[in-house]
User: Fold this.
Amino acid sequence: MYTVKDVAKKLEVSEHTIRFWAKSGFFPFVKRNNNNIRLFEEKDLEWVRIVKCLRSVGIDNKSIKRYIELCIKGDSTIKERYDIIKKTKEKAQEQMSELENQLNLLNFKENYYVELIKNNSKDTWNPMNKN
Amino acid sequence: MYTVKDVAKKLEVSEHTIRFWAKSGFFPFVKRNNNNIRLFEEKDLEWVRIVKCLRSVGIDNKSIKRYIELCIKGDSTIKERYDIIKKTKEKAQEQMSELENQLNLLNFKENYYVELIKNNSKDTWNPMNKN
DNA sequence: TATGACTTTAGAGTAACTCTAAGTCAAGTA
DNA sequence: TACTTGACTTAGAGTTACTCTAAAGTCATA
Assistant:
């Protein structure tokens, strides 16, 4: 059994965020002990992991809530949930190729600076260069 | 020469965002015509591209502003700018591997749903399943 | 028993957009 | 010539998803 703090540490999400997600209704299944303290079971962690995954791919909180409501409804919604996951996956793949582009640009910039430093030359690319 | 709208379309960023960035002081070099309209030159587009790149890797606007101020200062700041780009690149690489993890999870989920549908079986993973 | 470490909540604060309203200007049309 | 349309401008309000703070409850240890 894990407290909010444990979950936060284990999944590398802030405690604030876990509580915010809880308040947003993302974990309707989480039990509380006698002192009103949330205790996540092993199985629940998988769920938090999915929420983190959806968020980090940029799915908004309203859509995550909708996905959760489909899960609550039960097996009749499996097809619809499958579609959501598939769309999300496609979105993630686009992000991957976008990130590759950005990495290329950063590599280019890095090399550019390396050359500048090595040759002690002027930064002619910089549109505001005063030199 | 490109208006804000042109830049927005070319770099796939909203016009609002370009104006917001302009207001934030990200494009101190952009000229205006007689009617006070911003006109970006070809060279300036490269700059907007860098800003987009830094933002999409999660660099905050204050840090981007700082980078720009270093650029304005001129060639004496090249080493410091190099360090920023290098750190940003490392951050992007971490994001890449994080995104790979998320993609793996999404693939796993996708296959799980595919199997459920194919075999018409129960969703035993779902912690809120009512079936 | 009190100190400290933990939890909870409501609600204020923040970053980075995102949108709206009101205004200027130039070009096209009746 | 007057009017409408459309592109651009600004200030500032609104939104999302956190992020933080404050107040209060519980429990172990000194």
User: Anything to note?
Assistant: The CA atoms of residues 10 and 81 of chain A lie 26 Å apart. The two ends of chain A are 62 Å apart (CA to CA).
